[in-house]
Amino acid sequence: MMRFIKYIPLLVSLVQAKRVVQDWDITYVTTNRGLNQPPRRGVGVNNKLPIPVVRAELGDTLILNVRNSLDVPTSVHAHGILQHGTNYYDGVPMVNGCGIAPGSNFTYEIPLQQSGTYWLHGHAAEQNFDGLQTPLIITDPNDPYPVDEEYLFAVDDWWPITIKESLAILQQPGGLGTPFVYPPQTLINGVFGNLTKPVTFEPEKTYRIRLVSMMSLPLWEFAIDDHELYIVEVDGVLTKPKAVNVVRMAPAQRVSVLVRAKNTVAKNYQYHITVLDEYVPPIPGVYPAQFDGAVVYHPDAPVDIVQSIPSERFDELSIETLEYEPVLVADQSMFLNLTYGFTEEEIPFETINLIAYQDSLVPSLFSALTTGERAINPITYGPQTNTRVLKYNEVVEMLFWSPTELPHPMHLHGHVFQIIERGLVNDTTGASRQRVPDTGFSPLQRDTVHVTQGEYVIARFRANNPGVWNLHCHFSWHIGLGFNMLMVVGPRELQRTMRLPPAVIEQCRIQGIATHGNAAGHNSFNYMGAPDLPFLEAALPEAAAKLAAAGGSI
Known about the structure:
- The protein has helices at about 165-170, 365-370, 475-480, 490-495, 500-510, 540-550; strands at about 20-30, 40-45, 55, 60-70, 75-80, 105-110, 115-120, 135-140, 150-160, 185-190, 190, 200, 205-215, 220-225, 230-235, 235-245, 245-250, 255-260, 270-275, 290-295, 330-340, 350, 390, 395-400, 410, 415-425, 435, 445, 450, 455-460, 465-475, 485-490.
- It is mainly β.
- The two termini are about 40 Å apart.
């Protein structure tokens, strides 16, 4: 195996941390993104899409000055940034704050205590679906994997309808609606995939390629003909080098690979970004779709064309973190049934354990800070939030169970988790069970795991970051239909250590939102006025079952 790691002595860094200032006026933008689609209204920054990539260094502070020029609340979530001590900047309206009111200003001040590949995206009303998203790259001057140059591939999909229109279609009675009659197109670094740009390699140099999936729905893969890829980072966590031929990406995931260039300029090559048709209905030119770019060693060299492009699942159980951490021993385990449910009127919702998330009347973080000892009781946050209260520093095992025909990329805010085990939910013999070794192995840690349809995944994390954190599916449609729950970590520790910035509270005052009490805004065990928890049935209506069997629903 090639050696990439640079061993660096433990020296005090003399690099001066910076304030990386970004001025974002979040605006509506009418555009077709250069695609063969009619223009529609999106959400951009400073009247433009795509939004420029944000870059910083480890130890910097990201100053994100936001002006909300929309007519609805907005927010920004730094996906993968753990927000130690700054849970109020995690950017989820009615969880960490009240969002940013229309016509108002708000500043996020986020200490960047992690290096790696992340992204910024809207977390109010799934505005990322409508364009409010961009990569966030945090470099480390002392990175153990030094490179000569790096490239970034951020891949997303642009639909000719908005998230609001999509959800209205999906919630037609009987689950009969399908937005796929308005198919999307793939964007690579903000432009149509067919226009993807070449990359230049020089002999024997080492390149880092950062992959960011800002997709709302499909899987995609990255490969370079006749070049081995070495995985060295997954979701911001450094790994031991893992040689692969292809990297498969689910929505919200990030991966960095190292590529060692050839020692000759005799040939040029191609890289491939392939959008898969797994779990989505086949649509010519959309699912699947292949986008090819040039890897140029010399402008006059011939292109080495291969006969086939590799394709394979991402094998998380064979990858180890660079910094050794043994398999965590769980203090508690929670069963999380990833399924859908229907009201009596056959309106579909996406759920965890048949609970479709709804916001409380008070931001849940505020409830944790203002209800004293009642903060340790999950009911304080409302049954419709599906809250679990965790003791500080306990190890939590999550058993993700996906028994339906739908997969789910599950994302946890504020933490990374170890991937421990995978298997099939209908396996009664254990033949499909795959598990990391119990000893002598440092399991991969990440913040987003793709739970394939009909599969289970066991993940474990240490609840060492006091705050209120979302756990949700990162399909935009699914979280829009209620696929979310809350983890309240160490409420007693939170009350002792956290004070809300006045600007966070002011946003609630502007919008007339209560800032004290339980889910109903009461400082007692009175829950009158709290949002109702709708009764949902797991049975799939007959008409929708036929549609799903034909590949027409998601």
